[in-house]
Design goal:
homodimer, about 200 residues, mainly alpha, 9 helices, about 0% strand, DNA-binding
DNA sequence: TTGCTTGCTGACCTTTCGGTCATTAAATAT
DNA sequence: ATATTTAATGACCGAAAGGTCAGCAAGCAA
């Protein structure tokens, strides 16, 4: 008798399938990716995939969870631990975090969200709860901290933390659409941070 | 005999079909829209649609072109005609133009571009030539004009007109993904313009 | 009225793909 | 060894949707 035709590895399967799904979605998008393709990449049968994930959409949620959630936790953890002043935090860890995003796997998830949001409202809710609202809350916290300490003046920016997100989003969209036409995203983001800071400094 | 069951209107059909397709794509996106649905909206049979457009993708490209083309020169025309100073132009016509975009039909095209760009390189080229590169050039022109006239100082912004686009893109993406969770896009864009101007004013 | 061209219809074909399930066999317990 | 459990397979199903085509009828010419 030859080698075993497969091994039972209940522990590892979900992770492996999620990783394969991410790779496939990244290349072709969610709708255009066939479940069978994901299974093939994971070295697994389609049936097994449905043993671990009830539907294709559940699989998508798992991908979001595995790719994006850790990033947000990372940001809030950094913020909680840091004892830097508001400006120093923004120019240091926050700027670095923002500059990393466009080249990271998270940017792919964002592209997928833009494409799929209209047809998957529950996915949007999930993303809002787990990612977007937390990120914005973190930004707001930094800004308020700066106002309290007297570093920053009161301004519209405090209520519009999306101003920090804008150049990141721009970079991600640019990379998605105009992949080959280069844009210095690091510089774009740094300039925005610089502008915001001189605008709100007391 | 009753009224004729249809009229032959070879001249108008393509336009009517692309208009119907645009409306449908805007609501559901490209993949989720059925060709039959487009035909129904256009008051036409599916077969006729395939008489004028070889495939669903050809129809998609026709839609993009028909929406984008008329818009191309609006900004540059305004710019050429205007004799305002750089700051006045930015705070006036340019700001108004930027604020109109997120609620306009153009924003839907951008969403479609983000979703479909990876699989339609020729569409990206078209969009780059006809829209993106021209818009950026116009912005650059305004900035340079301001520097020459002494209104603005030299800064990174001159080489990064994408800083003007960023809040617009943010607003469009926000509207696409978080439609119901409100964001004051007018204020976001105005604040950005305000920030940029105080940053670059001589 | 008659005959011809062609815009137009809608039933139909074919393929794709998410999801199911009867069956197999790897691992574990007895 | 034998029985039991369950991870894993892959053939299959049914619905959906892109695309086709034989035929119909609107409009025109003679």
């Amino acid at each position: 008798m030859g080698p075993p035709r497969y091994q039972r590895r209940k522990q590892d399967r979900p992770q492996e399938i999620t990783a394969a799904a991410f790779a496939a979605f990244a290349e072709k998008g969610f709708t255009a990716t066939k479940v069978e393709e994901v299974a093939r990449r994971a070295g697994v049968s389609k049936g097994l995939l449905y043993l671990y994930f009830k539907t294709k959409e559940e699989l998508f949620k798992a991908v979001i969870r595995s790719v994006v959630a850790p990033r947000i936790d990372e940001l809030t953890r950094t913020l909680d631990r840091s004892d830097l002043g508001a400006e120093a935090f923004i120019r240091g860890p926050l700027l670095a975090f923002m500059q990393r995003l466009p080249g990271s796997r998270a940017s792919i998830v964002i592209r997928l969200m833009i494409s799929e949001a209209p047809r998957h409202p529950d996915l949007v809710d999930y993303y809002w709860d787990k990612v977007a609202s937390r990120g914005l809350a973190a930004l707001r916290q930094v800004l308020e901290r700066g106002v309290e300490s007297g570093e920053f003046r009161e301004s519209a920016v405090t209520e519009l933390p999306q101003l920090f997100v804008a150049p990141v989003m721009m970079s991600i969209v640019w990379g998605t659409v105009f992949a080959e036409r280069s844009l210095d995203t690091d510089r774009l983001i740094e300039t925005q941070v610089d502008m915001i800071l001189s605008y709100i400094k007391a």
